[in-house]
């Protein structure tokens, strides 16, 4: 039976640099893949995955693609069964392996137009929903694919500025921050001072002069983000706020997100929110630091969850609380933030459902005081967070966030 | 337990995370996980106990079926009620994933299955429904009466009194029987049985396939 693609045993019949680079990332032998998956992965699924691996190493790439697709679809159903935190890691690893094989097979020759971008998309799905295998091989595959995508043309310098959103907004869109309610600000406080006066008593504070020299502050622009991550697939939230009925999540490339939801003057809100973008795109990770004050916590540095929050003016995170300490760092644009203490939770009328019990029912900037009368008297602090500034949000502190400009924030969740 | 001791259970169907029970009195109960609206009580909350579908109060159901994350029941008058997850159009409601021509949405991450299915006839932007947490009444073409139903993990199949089979939902592995790998968010009659003069009597779906029982139509 004729072989239908390049394989390790074949004499180098082509000088396909992409294929060579991808193949070099794989273990030399099929056995080194480590596909001995136990429960709960059922033997038929594990068997089909091993079959796909065998086809890959035998160079039967069309057949491998077909088998990988089936494993991928099967594992996807498992990933969607039950609460996400209960999904067994083994299924996520199966999903990752299937993505790996599929991404490789998509790059087989003869290569269709868009194959490399499609393969990168598959890698991103594996990164978003799978679990790392072979030392997080999908990151390396993504890097190789990214390097083989056509480079962007740098536009003329005058076009490199960000779109008009950075101009002052019209009207009374910028909320007043009463001085007696302002979050206190400190310039590079000593670790112990921060610990004694803010961390232990759980008081919010804005730290200035800590992140303002991170490379991201100068480097990041829409153009730069497009260059580094434009082809990458990311989760985007659609809809004004996650408590709305018409709110949904979808996947799209960063290019599409910027074109459709950031650059365009649109009533449809799209928000790249709460996404570990820096795990997916390590190149961006080099532009940010980690606030030193995290070392005051109990956890290890690799346990800190770093999330990206990127969107147009007007994105809103309804009043809610998170279980961990948060250093919310502003990189692009400004955000209006209001904070309420956990002891005032009753006046914030949290939802009663399990799904939303950490979210208030009250619309902070337009509260229905007939339904939520106690809210009017609840004490709060507020601020406008600008680029270079870090807001310390103590664990369980309620916070409401609205972007006043096109905005990029980085949050650090630590314990 | 919320089930009355005098309840006579007729059918029990299991999805990936939920259970559907059809009683002799034509009432439907559901319980289990509800994050995709598959329980039909109007929320995304789980139900630890069997709970009657209030939305179907006053209607008599004669058939029920459960897919991976969706539910179907048929009334004694041949109407189809359907609820749950619509990510591949398995509820026969417009789904975003089939309307987009390029990269897929949150779906199976495959991008290789061809896109088919609905947009509104006048080209106006459709309202996409990802999750339907209440039963929705589905109109089959030509007002056909449904008598049997079965669901795969992400597709739906219905037999009509006239002996036709309609399928919709995820079709990547040919489970819809239309000769290709297209997914649909509208019911489509399976032409094969019409062309071969077969009267469809019953249908049963596996997760990714469909089994159909037919008898030959009498030649007149």
UniProtKB/TrEMBL annotation, chain A:
It is found in: Nucleus. It holds the Pfam family ARM_KDM8_N. Coiled coil: none annotated. Residues 270-415 form the JmjC domain. Its EC number is 1.14.11.73. SMART domains: JmjC. Keywords: Aminopeptidase, Biological rhythms, Cell cycle, Chromatin regulator, Dioxygenase, Hydrolase, Iron, Metal-binding, Nucleus, Oxidoreductase, Protease, Transcription, Transcription regulation. It catalyses: L-arginyl-[protein] + 2-oxoglutarate + O2 = (3R)-3-hydroxy-L-arginyl-[protein] + succinate + CO2. SUPFAM superfamilies: Clavaminate synthase-like. Its cofactor is Fe(2+). It is an enzyme of class 1 (oxidoreductase). This is Bifunctional peptidase and arginyl-hydroxylase JMJD5.
Automatic annotation (TrEMBL), chain B:
RCC repeats lie at residues 26-77, 78-162, 163-216. Residues 101-120 are annotated as: Disordered. Gene3D superfamilies: Regulator of chromosome condensation 1/beta-lactamase-inhibitor protein II (2.130.10.30). InterPro entries: RCC1/BLIP-II, RCC1_domain-containing, Reg_chr_condens. Pfam families: RCC1. This is RCC1 domain-containing protein 1. It comes from Dipodomys ordii.
């Amino acid at each position: 039976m004729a072989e239908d693609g390049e394989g390790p045993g074949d004499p180098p019949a082509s000088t396909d640099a992409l294929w060579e680079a991808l193949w070099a990332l794989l273990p030399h032998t099929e056995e080194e893949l480590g596909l001995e998956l136990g429960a709960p992965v059922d033997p038929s699924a594990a068997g089909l995955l091993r079959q796909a691996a065998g086809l890959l190493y035998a160079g039967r790439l069309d057949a491998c693609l077909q088998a990988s697709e089936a494993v991928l679809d099967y594992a996807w159903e498992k990933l969607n069964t039950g609460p996400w935190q209960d999904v067994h890691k083994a299924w996520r690893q199966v999903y990752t392996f299937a993505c790996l094989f599929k991404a490789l097979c998509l790059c087989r020759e003869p290569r269709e137009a868009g194959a490399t971008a499609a393969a990168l998309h598959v890698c991103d799905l594996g990164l978003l929903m799978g679990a790392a295998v072979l030392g997080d091989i999908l990151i390396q595959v993504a890097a190789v694919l990214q390097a083989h995508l056509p480079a962007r043309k740098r536009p003329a310098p005058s076009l490199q500025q960000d779109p008009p959103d950075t101009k002052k907004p019209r009207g009374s869109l910028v909320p007043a921050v009463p001085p007696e309610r302002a979050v206190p600000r400190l310039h590079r406080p000593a670790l112990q001072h921060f610990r004694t006066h803010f961390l232990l008593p759980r008081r919010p504070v804005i730290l200035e002069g800590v992140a303002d020299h991170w490379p991201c502050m100068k480097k990041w622009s829409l153009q730069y983000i497009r260059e580094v991550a434009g082809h990458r697939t990311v989760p985007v939230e659609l809809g004004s706020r996650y408590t709305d009925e018409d709110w949904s999540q979808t996947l799209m490339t960063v290019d599409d997100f910027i074109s459709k939801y950031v650059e365009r003057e649109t009533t449809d809100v799209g928000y790249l929110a709460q996404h570990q973008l820096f795990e997916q795109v390590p190149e961006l990770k080099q532009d940010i630091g980690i606030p030193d004050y995290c070392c005051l916590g109990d956890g290890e540095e690799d346990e800190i969850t770093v999330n990206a929050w990127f969107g147009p003016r007007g994105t809103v995170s309804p009043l809610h609380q998170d279980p961990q300490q948060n250093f919310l760092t502003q990189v692009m644009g400004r955000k209006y933030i209001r904070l309420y203490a956990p002891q005032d939770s009753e006046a914030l009328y949290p939802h009663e459902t399990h799904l939303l019990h950490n979210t208030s029912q009250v619309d902070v900037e337009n509260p229905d005081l007939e339904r939520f009368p106690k809210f009017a008297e609840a004490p709060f602090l507020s601020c406008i967070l600008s680029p270079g500034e870090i807001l310390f949000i103590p664990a369980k502190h309620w916070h409401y966030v609205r972007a006043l400009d096109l905005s990029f924030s980085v949050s650090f969740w630590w314990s | 337990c919320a089930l009355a001791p005098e309840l006579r259970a007729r059918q029990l169907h299991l999805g990936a995370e939920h259970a559907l029970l059809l009683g002799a009195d034509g009432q439907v109960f559901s319980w289990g996980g509800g994050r995709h609206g598959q329980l039909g009580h109007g929320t995304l909350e789980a139900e630890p106990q069997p709970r009657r579908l209030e939305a179907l109060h006053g209607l008599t159901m004669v058939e029920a079926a459960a897919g991976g994350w969706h539910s179907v029941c048929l009334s004694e008058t041949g109407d189809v009620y359907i609820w749950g997850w619509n990510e591949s159009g398995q509820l026969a409601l417009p789904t975003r994933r089939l309307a987009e021509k390029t990269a897929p949405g949150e779906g199976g991450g495959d991008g290789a299955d061809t896109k088919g299915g609905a947009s509104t006839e006048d080209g106006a932007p459709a309202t996409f429904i990802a999750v339907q947490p209440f039963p929705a009444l589905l109109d089959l073409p030509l007002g056909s009466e449904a008598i049997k139903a079965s669901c795969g993990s992400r597709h739906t199949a219905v037999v009509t009194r006239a002996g036709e089979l309609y399928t919709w939902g995820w079709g990547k592995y040919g489970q819809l029987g239309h000769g290709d790998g297209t997914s649909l968010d509208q019911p489509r009659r399976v032409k094969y049985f019409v062309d071969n003069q077969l009267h469809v009597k019953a249908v049963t779906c596996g997760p990714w396939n469909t089994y159909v029982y037919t008898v030959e139509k009498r030649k007149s």
